[in-house]
Amino acid sequence: MKEFDDSEWEMVIGLEVHTELATKTKLFSAAPNEFGGEPNTNIDPVTLGLPGALPVLNEQAVELAIRVGLALNCTVQRSVFARKNYFYPDQAKNYQISQFDLPINIDGWIELPDGKRVGIERAHLEEDTGKSTHIGGGGRIHEADYSLVDYNRCGVPLLEIVGRPDLANGEEARAYVAELRAILVAVGASDGKMEEGSLRVDCNVSVRRRGETELGTRCEIKNINSLRSLVRAMNYEAARQVEVITSGDRVEQQTRHWDESQG
């Protein structure tokens, strides 16, 4: 595994934390919000986007989102939902209902155990996607023989908490996620179980030489499902970027996936 040299370089880290809200039903339908059911049993016409099926907003999800916003020192504002149109197998209706221009929570902060404050840009409501399982090819989509899709998770209420790039190393990032998870559990918004996908983290990482103020080119790391993976993935990515820069090349903005089995 690559080692990051922090004597000359520093990381700039911003995290996007996605947490499934602990509601009884989905965000816009009466289908159950339950983990561990048989595939494609927690679905209904709204989940599948069948003709004539209209969404109805889950009041409990809004209340939990507001509760989280207040706990994160956010400004809670009038919000608007929008359709994010895209075609992908894990979204049966070919669009996701999300918030963009007017999210429900903005401009918050969270304090780490060492007293450092980390800014929160926004925390908005959206639908979760279904889950794809790729058969063959080591579970990778581009090498798979075929794929299976489970829509049980599709439409589950998700709160995406977008942090500002105020974190400087993997340990701070781990402390941030641990503190955030504790808050989510304490206010009853989520069970915070990363192993079940209730809490998922995307990391935006860039590097720069110590003393510089300009941000470097960031790369996003997905598929982080444990605090241990979080630190290892960021250290590896930062070391990779330093290696690219010191070899005379330029870091390209990319979305990368972390494979814990390969370290």
Total DSSP helices? 4
Question: Over all CA atoms, what is the radius of gyration?
Answer: 19 Å
Please tally the β strands and state the result: 12
The biggest beta sheet is recorded as: 8 strands, mixed
How many angstroms separate the termini? 6 Å
Strand order of the largest sheet: 2-5-6-9-1-10-11-12
Polypeptide structure, described:
This protein has four helices and twelve strands; from the N terminus they run E-H-H-E-E-E-E-E-E-E-E-H-E-E-H-E. The protein has 263 residues and is an alpha+beta fold. It has one domain (9-262). It has an eight-stranded mixed β-sheet, with helices on one face. Strands 3-4 form a two-stranded antiparallel sheet. A two-stranded antiparallel ribbon has the order 7-8. Helix 4 links the parallel strand 11 and strand 12. Helix 3 (170-186) packs antiparallel against helix 4. The longest helix has 20 residues, at 227-246. The chain is globular, with a radius of gyration of 19 Å. The model has no long low-confidence stretch (mean pLDDT 93).
Question: How do the strands and helices of this protein lay out in sequence?
Answer:
Elements: E1 9-20, H1 45-48, H2 59-71, E2 75-76, E3 82-85, E4 95-98, E5 105-111, E6 117-127, E7 131-135, E8 146-150, E9 157-163, H3 170-186, E10 199-209, E11 219-224, H4 227-246, E12 255-257
Parallel strand pairs: 11-12
Antiparallel strand pairs: 1-9, 1-10, 2-5, 3-4, 5-6, 6-9, 7-8, 10-11
Helix pairs in contact: 3-4
